[in-house]
Design brief:
mainly alpha; 124 residues
Length: 124
Amino acid sequence: MSVYYVNKFLYQVDGDPGLLAAYKADPAALVERWEADYGRRLGTNNSVETTSWLHFTEAERAALVEHDYVALFELGAHFFLTLTIFIAIYDDDYSAASGPLSFQREYAAKLSHWLDKDYPTVAL
């Protein structure tokens, strides 16, 4: 797994309203597009330097496509990045149905089995 690559995806998509909307509407298409284009760019600010060796594993790709934040966390993705991107995707829907902080409560409940364990490392 490339923790860096997954975290780069989460950070970049969460910070770009257009990418975030595309990820919410069609996760598989956005993951494929991001990996083929944005993910190959090195550095920030759309650097012209690119790489061809970084890619998602099948488990990473599946977790990203399925919005499986528990799997992403367990694969080593940074907990803050998984929380913030999925708040951006789900908070309005959850809040409308169940009130404020509903998604955050679900996130905490689904990761509660980690309370008595050490977190996966988030070191680079």
